[in-house]
Write a structure and sequence with these properties.
The protein is an alpha+beta fold and 205 residues long. The chain contains 4 helices and 10 strands; from the N terminus they run E-E-E-H-E-H-E-E-E-E-E-H-E-H. The strands form 3 sheets. The chain has a 4-stranded mixed β-sheet, covered by helices on one side. Helix 1 runs parallel beside helix 4 and helix 2 runs parallel beside helix 3. The longest helix has 20 residues. It is globular.
Length: 205
């Protein structure tokens, strides 16, 4: 198995232009510029707490709204993860983490399964948004980013929010938990067999 699992993905449409560089054997170095300051902050957390080297350069039709840029960034990072994982031999495959952020508490459980699925449970999600410099970012935007990421990376992801009154704190807890769960799932070694972690002998691609 090659030690370095890296990928560079570029995607250009009439709506967005995005380049992502990802190194799964990284040290948490990040450079993120999407035009959406709140998403930049969340993706920086993903790289930092997931020990991923992550570079994202994106431009999009933010004069329309944030939808296309938000979605396409999720798709391209997911595609980069899928490529960087390669044959997935020897990975843990499963990952989970609980993360608190002041009054917020989130849990993320994921499976590098080849079967894309996002399940989110949070009864308080309507109306949540982060407002500040730049365009506001809402709970539905966060959910849409995660769905796009899960679809492109072909992950099963369960997100549960147990507490959280402040949207910013809640979103941070979710992204930090995602980062920790992902770091656990992609890790190789630790006494695991070098084969593909599936009774089928393969993971769907």
């Amino acid at each position: 198995m090659a030690k370095n699992r890296q990928a560079v993905i570029t995607r250009k449409t009439k709506e967005t232009a995005i380049t992502v560089r990802l190194n799964l054997e990284g040290k948490g170095r990040t450079s993120v510029r999407t035009g959406l300051p709140f998403l930049d902050h969340m993706l920086t957390l993903l790289g930092t707490h997931g020990a991923l080297d992550l570079s994202v350069a994106a431009t999009g039709d933010l004069d329309v709204d944030i939808h296309h840029t938000n979605e396409d960034v999720g798709l391209v990072i997911g595609a980069a993860l899928l490529k960087a994982l390669g044959d997935r031999r020897g990975i843990n495959r499963f990952g989970w983490a609980y993360v608190p952020m002041e009054e917020a508490l989130a849990r993320v459980v994921l499976d590098i399964s080849g079967r894309p699925k996002l399940v989110m449970r949070d009864a308080r999600r309507p109306g949540r948004r982060a407002a500040g410099s730049g365009t506001s970012y809402q709970w539905t935007d966060l959910e849409h980013w995660l769905e796009s990421f899960a679809r492109a990376a072909k992950l099963t992801i369960h997100v549960d929010v147990f507490a959280g009154d402040d949207f910013h704190h809640t979103a941070e807890a979710v992204f930090k938990a995602l980062a920790r769960a992902l770091a656990q799932a992609v890790r190789r070694g630790g006494g695991r067999p070098v084969g593909v972690p599936s009774s089928k002998g393969m993971l769907e691609k």
